[in-house]
Every structure is written in structure tokens, then in C-alpha cells.
Write a structure and sequence with these properties.
The protein is α+β, with helices and mostly antiparallel strands. The chain has 9 helices and 17 strands. The structure holds zinc ion. Zinc ion binds next to loops.
């Protein structure tokens, strides 16, 4: 496992340890002048703009309870005899404008808008479980639909066109290109090293210094001072889930959720879901504290009909620009046309921030509040952690 980086003129060129994809990190860019966003006014004015966007978009919103039954399509009976799949506040129905196979939309809450730190664990859990139920029904009808995808685009800067909180669920016959790359590279790593990249990554990131104890490669005539000083990117972990700030992020404030025990989204157990929802909630509280108002959450699942020893199911969360009428995009020609990510947040500082929030919020029983275990009778505890027992 190599955390490869090159420093030139104060910019860190980092390479993903699995895929070798490049990102360039320069935290000074976060402080650059953005003419449409006067930093002195960000707090008050952006709040007013946001309130206005939310108020206007609520009028005639087809995802609000008054219109959803009338305006959204229904599944055929072999997917859902009731037309839509419901659980708690979640309602899942077909996407009218799909960009994938078996593309559905899953409303998370009856509220038209929720600040990103106000989603309840119940809402997030119901949405995840209902999505898994939908995916299972698709697969039962079509055994070729093996690659599930779960995407949450929160607020328009993330490419979510409707404010009302919802997820996208797809079940594809082939992995998406990035999903395929991760699967192929993980197999290659397994064949070369005889071990699983993802569990190796967790172990490497747990070590003091998080792999940064190796000296960065540098070139003559260039500054070699590292932007970080041996700070860890590891946030927290138990047997079921690990959270890491990615070494070479594809997006700002990127956090990886790695499930070391499973390779597919469909293998999530009650315990995994409890762990994930609690940690996601914590991270979203952290995002809010950092002034973030938009994000993408995506899954990278292995095929649902196989248990792969070389791959672990994982997700990524990245922040997007704050929703306001006009804003500076975080994605430009380098990302869209050159396949290079330009990042202005340091993973090591993000991990530090998230660790402090995690410690404050969850104290000793970090991921797995006992009250949730009580609400899930099939979840027991082992060494203070929830233990997976059954499939959902
Ligand atoms: Zn709405």
C-alpha cells in the first residue's frame, strides 16, 4: 500500500493508493477571492437566499405529501403490489427521467426541506431499508440486475434538481465505470498481495501518521515542505464500519465509509445500517458546523449475487458548494475534461475535525447507541458494539 504524493510549489499531487488517480491539493485556494461570494456576508445573506429558494420551491412540489400520490408514477405489481414502496416517511417510485436501469426515486422525509443535520436516524434507516427492499424485488424479477447504486444528492449544487430530500436508486446489469475500476483494481491488488485492499487500507490508516511517515517524493528546485505533518486521516471504526478521510479525494471534504465484512450493498445487516446511519448523522452534523450546505453520497457495491473476498462495499461522501443564487462551482475543466481533481481541503484536517465531533457527540459508545439496539431486537451487542445477526 503506497500513499504516493509529490509536492511542487506548495501543491500536493496525490495518487489514489488503489487506482492511481490524481488529485491536486492546495488549501490556499479555499481562501482565494470569489467575486460572487463576499465572505463577510456569507452567513446572513446566504441564509436569506436559501430561505427564499426553499419557500418558492415548496409551491407545487411533487414530492410533498399533498401531491406525491397524484403526480408520481407507480411500479408494476411485480415490483410493488401497492404501486409504491413505503416505509416510515420513505416513499419509493419510478424515476420519470431516468439515467440508469431500474432507476427509482426514494423520498426521505415528508418535510419539503431539512437542514443537513436534522435528518433523524429513523428517517435515514427507513430510507436505506426500503431501498434495499426495492433492489431485492428488482433482482428477483431480473437476475441480470446485479449492481445496486444508491445516491443522495442534497440540494441543487450537488445536481439534485428538486430541493425535497430524496435519493436515487438504480439496479444495473453492469457496474458503472468507476465501480468497475474499483472492482478490477481490488482483484489485481488481491492477486498481487494475497490480501484485501480495503481491510489493508483501514489497517494502514489506523497506524499513527496514517501512511504519511514515508517521505514525499519531490523534485529538485521545488519546495518540498509537506502540507501536513503526520496527521491521521482515520476517523473511527468498529468491526462493521470504518470512516476515513480519503488520502487522494475526488471531492472536497471527502469521507469514505468502508464495510469490511461485506462486498455488496445487499449484504447490509441491521447492525451495519445502525452503524452507518449513526456515523452519517454525526458526519452531517460536522458538515453543518463547517458551513456546508450541499453534498453527494454514493455507493460502490460489488455484485449482489456474489460474496467477494477481494472487495469491500464502500461509500463516499463529498461536500458541494453552499446553495445560493450564484456561487463558484467546485468542479471545472480539470475535473470535467482532464480527469484531475483540484481540492482545497486537506483530508488530514477534515479527519481531525470529524474525530473531535465524533468524540463529542458519541463519547464512548461511538457508533452504536444502545437504545437503537433495543429498537432492533435482532441486533445484539458484543464488546459494547452492535453485532450483526440476520439479514434484513
Ligand atoms: Zn416538497
Amino acid at each position: 500500500m503506497e500513499f504516493r504524493r509529490v509536492i511542487r510549489d506548495g501543491i500536493e499531487y496525490r495518487f489514489d493508493p488503489l487506482t492511481n488517480e490524481q488529485c491536486r491539493i492546495n488549501p490556499r485556494r479555499a481562501k482565494r477571492v470569489k467575486q460572487v461570494e463576499n465572505p463577510d456576508k456569507v452567513g446572513a445573506e446566504s441564509g436569506i437566499e436559501l430561505d427564499e429558494i426553499i419557500r418558492k420551491s415548496k409551491e407545487g412540489c411533487v414530492f410533498c405529501p399533498q401531491l406525491i400520490e397524484e403526480k408520481t408514477p407507480e411500479f408494476p405489481p411485480d415490483i410493488s403490489p401497492d404501486g409504491r414502496i413505503k416505509r416510515g416517511e420513505t416513499i419509493i417510485f419510478p424515476n420519470l427521467n431516468p439515467f440508469g436501469e431500474n432507476h427509482a426515486v426514494g423520498i426521505i422525509t415528508t418535510e419539503h426541506f431539512l437542514p443537513l443535520d436534522e435528518f433523524s436516524e429513523r428517517q435515514l434507516m427507513d430510507n436505506l431499508i426500503a431501498s434495499i427492499n426495492y433492489i431485492r424485488r428488482v433482482y428477483e424479477n431480473n437476475r441480470d440486475a446485479r449492481f445496486p447504486i444508491y445516491i443522495w444528492n442534497y440540494m441543487p449544487p450537488s445536481a439534485g434538481s428538486i430541493i425535497h430530500p430524496h435519493v436515487q436508486i438504480m439496479v444495473e446489469g453492469e457496474p458503472l465505470p468507476q465501480q468497475r475500476l474499483l472492482l478490477d483494481k481490488s482483484l489485481e491488488y488481491f492477486q498481487q498481495n494475497g490480501s484485501n485492499y480495503w481491510t489493508d487500507l483501514i489497517e494502514a490508516e489506523k497506524e499513527p501518521g496514517g501512511g504519511l511517515r514515508s517521505k514525499p517524493l519531490s523534485e529538485a528546485n521545488h519546495k518540498t515542505k509537506s502540507l501536513v505533518n503526520g496527521v491521521n486521516r482515520f476517523i473511527l471504526a468498529n468491526n462493521s464500519l470504518a470512516l476515513i478521510a480519503s488520502f487522494a479525494p475526488r471531492g472536497f471534504n471527502e469521507i469514505q465509509f468502508i464495510f469490511p465484512e461485506i462486498s455488496s450493498f445487499m449484504d447490509l445487516t441491521d447492525a451495519h445500517i445502525v452503524d452507518f446511519v449513526q456515523s452519517l448523522k454525526t458526519v452531517l452534523v460536522g458538515y453543518k458546523e463547517m458551513g456546508i450546505g450541499s453534498f453527494n453520497l454514493v455507493t460502490y457495491s460489488g455484485p449482489m449475487d456474489e460474496s467477494l473476498d477481494y472487495y469491500c462495499f464502500n461509500m463516499k461522501l463529498i461536500s458541494r458548494p453552499f446553495p445560493r443564487c450564484v456561487y463558484t462551482n467546485d468542479t471545472g475543466p480539470m475535473e470535467r475534461l482532464y480527469d484531475v481533481r483540484v481540492i482545497d481541503t486537506l483530508p488530514e484536517q477534515l479527519a481531525e475535525k470529524m474525530r473531535s465531533i465524533t468524540n463529542r457527540r458519541l463519547c464512548t459508545d461511538i457508533l452504536l447507541a444502545r437504545n437503537l439496539c433495543q429498537r432492533f431486537p435482532k441486533v445484539t451487542q458484543r464488546d459494547g458494539f452492535a453485532q450483526k445477526v440476520v439479514h434484513l
